[in-house]
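Hi,

I'm pasting everything inline rather than attaching a file, because the server keeps stripping attachments. The sequence lines come first, and each chain or strand is labelled.
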Amino acid sequence: MFNTEYKFTCKRCGRIWYASSKEIREQKRLKREINLMNTTANVTKLSRLGIPTKKVQRQNAILSTMKLAYSDPKRCPDCRSRKVIKSKA
Ligand SMILES: [Zn+2]
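And the predicted assembly:
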């Protein structure tokens, strides 16, 4: 599969890091799933009057694992700035 590597340069602190297009795609997919799960979790919470069911507890566990695995490739890992320059590596 076509896989390009990108170079990211932070405008704020000058940190340089790399991410491949495959990684960026993966992170995007993960973020979508997290958002989706957040929405479902909220709906379940509302209908259950805030009492977490076994299903919600399990969902929350998966959700926190996914949140740990997620890191925005377009955000500086050092200063968390979004002011980054993306270029082909
Ligand atoms: Zn930075």
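Residues 52 and 88 are 46 Å apart (CA to CA).

If the labels don't parse on your end, tell me and I'll reformat.
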